[in-house]
Amino acid sequence: MLSSLEDLLSVPCGTLLANCCGIVTKIMDTPKKVSVVFMCASGEQFVATEFKAIVFSPLGVQIGTAQKKQSLAVLQDFLCVGNVLKLVCVKAQRFNSKFDGKVFFGTPLDYEFIITKNSKVFKETCGATRVDKFVRLEAGRFFALKCVLTAPFTLVDSMFAAVVGDLDAKRADLFVSGDCLSEKFGSLGKNDQLELKRCFIRFEDVALQIHVLSSDVVACNCKVVLDGCLTTPVKRKSDEMNLVSLKTQKK
């Protein structure tokens, strides 16, 4: 079960015994650490970071830099967008004054989770709900649906992306992650219909984003012509509703 925003706001900064569960939406890999952005049950984002450990050669002797490498001990087998991960025994570390993590990661929380040597990660299973209209899509859940390409895919940050529509002429931005994207989808174009067996959504301002793995995309081998101009099925809450009172967050 995904963590709720209320659950996350109740976590006191500094605890080493925090637990959380979310959908992996973004992986930010650097030479020294990996930060994973998660989505909670209501669509808000939170972050978990693991610092890479230096692993020396079997002889235990370091010569230059050739005999050492940096690697992950906990997250390395789980880093895939769309995975649902449960983190156990993680530290809630407050963002410091030199780094505005709330703005950088787009999270309402004052902290990020830190993976420690005592932390555990479990991959959870979540089923997909079949829908036939974009207006029924909600953040924090998985869906199965059909959509229609309005143009060929284009490469965006190692993902294949395209504007898609449903039969009610509602619009969404589709992002496909995975391997061999050109071979699988490079020949597809306008009016080609796709079946998404398992996807999740995000809202970027009022834009609806659909994220899916390439293994969960099937070309229907048929053309569907959408009528009229596509419009966005706005589901984002107002800015007033999105404001999170700092007083509700435990210090």
Automatic annotation (TrEMBL):
Protein name in UniProt: Uncharacterized protein
Domain of life the protein comes from: Eukaryota
Species lineage: Eukaryota, Metazoa, Ecdysozoa, Nematoda, Chromadorea
